[in-house]
Each structure stands twice: as C-alpha cells, then as structure tokens.
Amino acid sequence: MSPTTARTPVFVGREAELADLVQAARAAEGGDSQAVLVRGETGVGKTRLVEELLRAVEPGAAVVAVGGCVEFGADGFPFAPFSEILRSLWQHFPDEVLAASSGREALLARILPDLDVPALAARDDDVTRLFALITRILERLASEQPLVLVIEDLHWADAFTRDLLGSLCRTRRAGKLLIVGTYRTDDVRRGHPLRPLLASLDRVRSVRRVDLSRFSRGEVTAQLTGILGASPDPDVVRDIFDRSDGNAFFVEELARAHLDHVGTGLDDLRDVLLTRLDPLPEASQRIVRTAAQGGAVIGYPLLKAVTGLPEDALIDALRAAVLAQILVPEPNGTGYRFRYSLMREAVRASLLPGERALINRQYAEALEAAPSLAGTQELSGRLAQHWHAAHDEVKASHMTVAAAEEAGNGHALLAGGRHDTEAYDRLPRTQATASRPEPEERAEPVSSRGLTPRETEVLGLVARGYSNRRIAEELVISQKTTSHHVSSILAKLSASGRTEAAAIAYQYGLLSTPTP
C-alpha cells in the first residue's frame, strides 16, 4: 500500500443497511419497482454503501447507470444526473434508446448532446414532454432487464431533477426499476429546496430510507485494521476514534496521516472542514472561532460574556452555526460543543496568532470578572491556560502556581514545562531545593520508562495540575481516553497517585524543567 493511500480496502459494518438495499434490488428484479434514499452526514460512507450494493448485484443481471447532481449556482445544474444516466444508457443500448425516443430525438438531444440531432424551436411544454420522454425510455429498458439508477448528491439537485425524481418515485410503474438516491443530511437544512420532495416521498410505500450513522469504536478498529494491514495499536485506535467521532472519511484521513507520520498535519481535511464556515454570517464565524478556544464544551453564559454580543444577536449567530451543523447544543441546554472534534481542531489551527491571543485574553478577563462561569476546581487551571495563550506569562505563572496548590501538587509547577522562572521562584526555596534532583538522576530517557509520546504529553498536563476534563479538552480527546492514559502512566511509573507521578517525571527528566 502506498503511504498516502488510506481508502478502506474492506467493507466495514453496515450489514443491516446493505441488506435493505439488496432486498430492494431483489424486489425490483421481480417487477416491483423500488426507490431507496440513502442519507447521512458528510463522509459517513453513503457512496461506499452504494458501491457495495452494485457489487452485490449479479454481474450481467442488471443494467447500472450512475449520475451525480452538480453544485451550480443556487439550484444546481439542470437535469445533470439524468443527462449523465441517459448518456450511459445510450452508449450501451443505442438502439433501444432511439426506439423509445422515436420522433422526439431533437427533444432528447437537449439533455443528450451525443445524439447530434438538430435542435428545434423551444416550446412552452418542453419540460413536460421531456419528463414523459425520459420516463418512457426508462420504462422501456426496465421492461427487458433490471435497471438500477444511482443519483448521487441530491442536496445539489436542480428543480427539474427533483420534479422528475418525485414523479418517478410516486407513480407505480411496471418494470424492474430500482432508483437509489443519496444526500447529505447536514446540507439539507431548514428551507432547503429538497425538503418538500423528501416530505412528499415519506408517504410513498415503495420508497425506502436508509440512514447511516457514525461508526462505533469496534467498527473504527475494523476499518483501521483494513487500512493499516494489521491490528492497530490500542492507542492509535483511541486517538483516531476520539478525533474522528466515528466518521468514516475522517478515519481514513487520520489513518493516512498516521501512515505518513505527519501527526496532525491534515491540511487538506482541515481545508474541507473550514469551507463549511464560509456561508455563515460574520457574527456566526466569530462565535465559532471564539468557541474553538473555549474547550470541548463552552457554557452559554461564558460565551455571552466573552463575545460581549447582545443576547438576541448572540442567539441569531448561534442559530446559524447550529443549523450549519458546526455547533450542537448540549442535551442539558447549558452550552454548546463542536459537532466534530476535528472541526474544532481545524478552526483552532486557522486562527491568526494575534487573534488567538486576543480571544484567550477575553476568556481570561471574563473568568476573572465572574469566576462562577468556570468550575471552582478548574478556575485557576483555565486561567493559566488562557493567560499563557494570551502571552501574559506573569499572570499565567501566578495561575499555574495556584492550580498546583489547589491540586495539592507542588511538583506540578516544577514539571509543567510551560511556565517561566518567576513562577518557580514563587515556590518556597526549601521545597524547590529538596525536590530538585541532581543532573545525573534525570538522565534516564523517556523510552526506558515505557511512556508513549501521547502519555508524556498527558503527564505534562497532569504535572501542571490539570484535571482529566481539562486534559481532554486541551488534547481534544475523550475523558475516558484521558483516564486510560493517566492509569497507564501511573502503572508504568509505579506511582501511587498524580502527585507522585509528577515527582517521578521530574526526577527522571521526563519533562522539561524551568531554570531558577
């Protein structure tokens, strides 16, 4: 496998969904025409599922034609998928297509230029006549053998395509016709032109719906095994599952980054994610950028305090971000989180240095003005993080000391790795001297202690007095994964607790140390 190839070579999960599609195909083969709508969020695996259906169809037993809707202006490119489908059918069955369109070749040539027939003057009823002609061609072909039509990306369908598809699905027709349409649920928001068609098809018995959800951890493990060609390391599985949120496309991209040893580079994927911000109003984009620096979950009162927006303007900006499937409300109604962890990563990485510092300063000032906006046990740690990102090292140092004292961990300051000598000098000199090992005591390398790079990163935050929740937010991983890392660190260091782990880390030079 090429190091830049990360497409899953095996089909993972979706047994029930594939069975529904195969059942629809069998029904169509028996003369009971069917339609199936495959829906799910971007990257969840709709196209791959349809590909598996086409593989399951007995070779030679059915005619398959695929067409895709094209994003073009406000309402797609007229008849794009049916033009592509008819071109494919005409290339394979020219005589049958011409026979079915006898006398109306000039009309068909308007969406099938390959016919090379002189155009006639336009008529007011051309669309109605074209609908009838396309229907006749499809019925003619489906009467002789099973016909499978795949229409991808219905969220971009033009009005003519929507109307024709609705007519084909709503009218019971003789023949062996199966229509499969796919669309992105996260693109079909309130007011989208596809929604009326979907609502009308909900009442049609012969139209099935297949909903694709995100992969479970077990399915992500199976997907990674196929991509990597071997059982993946549990740490790799946890990291990719947490960051991908079970989205199949994200798993593939993260696996590619893992194969290429580029860590979190993923520039192409981040660019794809960031394009979802472009249609948002500027106020909503500002809210998203601000939320990205606020942790995995940001409370509504804190967001209001940081942005300084009037409440009605804040709600309008949040509504646009929620409708765009970028932010999602917490079930308890107290705040918001990013729908995808990788989206938060992408937004954070896109911030300009000065912009990042400004947002963090706004967070720090808001928390200092109203400490109740943060959890009591996390206030100092959060302030340390925000002041550090705001490049105010004096305040960051003070808060780092406070966080260490609150955690009852004097070694958290010594082993933190991201504070200055002034913070070190604030410790009682006897404590600093007693805790400081001789240089030779710190010579043992990280690898000899058995810690992975991720565990070393977690250990640095543990030593700073961060709670598991704050570590999870900082590293964009789940609290469960964080807990696993902390337990593993304690076991590998033979430490009885977090304080002792920080002391051992400092003793053996596993973490950087400030110079007094």
Question: Quick recap of the structure?
Answer:
This protein has 516 residues and is of the alpha/beta class. It contains 26 helices and 8 strands.
Write the SSE topology.
Layout: H1 15-29, E1 34-40, H2 46-56, E2 63-68, H3 80-92, H4 94-100, H5 105-108, H6 126-142, E3 147-152, H7 159-170, E4 177-184, H8 195-201, E5 207-211, H9 217-228, H10 234-244, H11 248-259, H12 267-274, H13 282-292, E6 297-299, H14 300-307, H15 311-323, E7 327-329, E8 335-338, H16 341-350, H17 353-369, H18 379-389, H19 393-406, H20 410-415, H21 421-426, H22 429-435, H23 453-463, H24 468-475, H25 479-493, H26 498-507
Parallel strand pairs: 1-4, 1-5, 2-3, 3-4
Antiparallel strand pairs: 6-8, 7-8
Helix pairs in contact: 1-2, 3-4, 9-10, 9-11, 10-11, 12-16, 13-15, 13-16, 14-17, 17-18, 18-19, 23-25, 23-26, 24-25, 25-26
List keywords for this structure.
516 residues; alpha/beta; Rossmann fold; three-stranded antiparallel β-sheet; 53% helix
Provide a descriptive summary of the structure in words:
- The protein is α/β, with parallel strands linked by helices.
- Among the domains are: 15-211, P-loop containing nucleotide triphosphate hydrolases (Rossmann fold); 217-263, no CATH class.
- Helices cover 53% and strands 8% of the residues.
- It is built from 26 helices and 8 strands.
- The strands form 2 sheets. The protein has a 5-stranded parallel β-sheet, sandwiched between helices. The protein has a 3-stranded antiparallel β-sheet with strand order 6-8-7.
- Helix 10 packs across helix 11 (248-259), helix 17 runs antiparallel to helix 18 and helix 18 (379-389) runs antiparallel to helix 19.
- The longest helix has 17 residues, at 126-142.
- The radius of gyration is 29 Å and the shape is elongated.
- It starts with 14 loop residues before the first helix and ends in a 9-residue tail after the last helix.
